[in-house]
Amino acid sequence: MPKLERPSIPGRTISVADKGAVGDGVVLNTAVFAEAIGELAENGGGTLTVPAGIYLTGPITLRSNICLNLEKGAVLSFSTDPADYPVIDTNFEGLDVRRCTSPINASGAHDIAITGEGIIDGNGDAWREVKRRKVGDDQWKMVMKRGGVLSDDGKVWFPDEGYKAARATAGTLNKPSDDLDESEIITFLRPVMVSFRECENVLLEGVTFLNSPCWNIHPLWCKNLIVKDIIVRNPHYSTNGDGIDIDACENVILTGSTFDVGDDAICIKSGKDEDGRRHARVCRNLVIDGCTVYHGHGGFVVGSEMSGGVENIAVRNCTFLGTDVGLRFKSTRGRGGEVKNILCENIRMKDIVTYAVIFNLYYAGVAATEMSQGGLVEEVKADETTPDFHDITIRGIKCAGAAQAVYLNGLPELPLRNISISDSDFAAEKGVEMHNSVDITIDGVKVNGKEV
């Protein structure tokens, strides 16, 4: 992994206020942001500053050699009108799909940055479905006041009938039937909030990202990415409310950042099934250090979309407080892909709802709190669609409370192998459980004070 440098941004600066932006949270400033970025791009780049205020806007497209700097007190508040977000060809959950344009986006750009002390608010409540079981009575009443429609059994709220119809056809793919009119199901095609696709030399620093329509931050097929001292927040009930999904990227440093989200917090991906294997983009060379995760389905997660492969990752000095799972590795038959050369060390965990450490290759697309441990037992022949997890080292774990310390659940046709867990202490209701796993090393591991 090369030494990563900050993006090259020229010294030129433009303020959106000087271009006529109004920070009252009411006036739509989409055209002002586009004009200012266009002017910077025409002159070789520079920094677009956003002073204190609340700036309502539609999508913002970053271009090469441009930094978006949010000063203290600045809030970017994204429009809740789906018509402001044209449907485009993109990639989501590892599949080539059609989705709405992301509120902040860039494609094929180099040397781009989002910095400062401000806040980026995706107003995602207008887009997402809400499951009744995930919210209390008062929150459910607030959701119902928005209008929308309920599922036939009354257990899920949808923004409109189009979303409900699309959801009924999408299954676990999150991809609706091609027979449906995009204009009528546009809320279902909700975007990730920050989408950087095939970009190089990217920096995210200092900013707070919150309330995204779907995933919060999604770098896809990017190279040389620095993420430093950011805060990522989504409501605990937010469907697909991931923190950051580092998807088939190379050379990434993520440090000093905090996550409190509705789905997986720090997630590593590389495409899904046939689409992922066809793109064949490996996610490799990542350092994740000194991050904190509060609510989330998983603190650090690999998968389940990992068909292009994941390799060479170090996760160090992180703290997970109250996540559903601590270290979460997941995949299933049909994915293919190889996950290898991963080190997780010096991780502190407290009040983990289910597993401190889990490898589950029978992942069924649900949170670990809902997962059946029964799994499938039939044996099939290993081929290109079989996920392969091996050569993974976990050490120095301190876990103060979990339902289970370690759960390894591989596939009979290609077991988990060369997994090492050492020098770790777990306080947990259950200890270590392994299925379809070979060459597993457990050394210096204690559960409730007793050596495993």
CATH top level assignment of the domain at 1-124 and 193-226: Mainly Beta
State the CATH topology of the domain at 1-124 and 193-226: Pectate Lyase C-like
Main beta-sheet strand count, sense and barrel state: 31 strands, mixed
Q: With helices defined by DSSP (H or I, 4 residues minimum), what is the helix count? A: 4
Helix share, percent:
under 10%
Specify Rg, calculated over alpha carbons.
22 Å
Percent of residues in β-strands:
over 45%
Structural class: mainly beta
**Span between termini:** 36 Å
Mean pLDDT: 95
Task: Using the alpha-carbon principal axes, give the shape.
Answer: globular
CATH level 4 superfamily of the domain at 1-124 and 193-226: Single-stranded right-handed beta-helix, Pectin lyase-like
What does this structure look like?
The longest helix is centred in the first third of the chain and has 13 residues, at 30-42. The chain has helices spanning 30-42, 137-144, 161-170, 273-279, and strands spanning 13-15, 24-28, 46-50, 53-57, 60-61, 66-70, 74-78, 87-92, 95-100, 104-107, 110-116, 119-121, 130-131, 149-150, 156-158, 194-197, 200-205, 208-210, 217-220, 223-228, 231-233, 244-247, 250-255, 258-260, 266-269, 283-289, 292-293, 298-302, 310-316, 319-321, 325-330, 338-360, 388-409, 416-435, 437-447, 450-451. The radius of gyration is 22 Å and the shape is globular. A hairpin with a 2-residue loop joins strand 35 and strand 36 (450-451). 8% of the residues lie in helices and 47% in strands. The chain has 452 residues and is mainly beta. It has a 31-stranded mixed β-sheet that branches. Strands 13-15-14 form a three-stranded antiparallel β-sheet. A two-stranded antiparallel sheet has the order 8-9.
